[in-house]
Please model this.
Amino acid sequence: MIGQISIHSEPAILNFEGKLGRYDIRTERPQVHIESRKAIVTMRNNGVGALEIDMSLTNDAIDGGSPESFWSRVYSQYKQMADDNIVRIVERGNTIGDLRIKGNPIADFAYEDFNEGAPDLQVYGPAYPDNTKISYTPAVPEIEVSDGDVNISVQTFRPDIQYHREYVKYYMKQYPKVIITPPAIDVIG
Model:
């Protein structure tokens, strides 16, 4: 029988040890200088505003207003009143001419006219809460503004950076090796 050779190897092992370096950074705060000047505001008033009160509708509702508006209001109602009277006369004429109606319609109409009285004319204007018109126009003030200003100056400082080194150690923990074992030789036999 043929013997076999045995080969066994072990790798090299390097060992490293180290510590990180560190930075020291120091810096001064920046210096800020601020100078400001106020804005100047000048205002001038151009007198008082204008207050306008229109009471024409209120006067129309209280006492009929001016003679022109009073008679204009009365005359403007005559056309409608004439139209209503023509309609009433036609209706009464038709009633008088209708022979089926018993009694005396003329006496009834006279009694109606007596009790009714004068025609209803709207001699006063309508009374509303907003009849009086008030308007105010304010005076426009003159405003002048002189701008202020701000001066800002900043002085910065460079940072002081220092690096402190540490160490790195390395060494051979295990050297590489190869072990070859030859087969056993039988010399006796």
Observations:
- The mean pLDDT is 87.
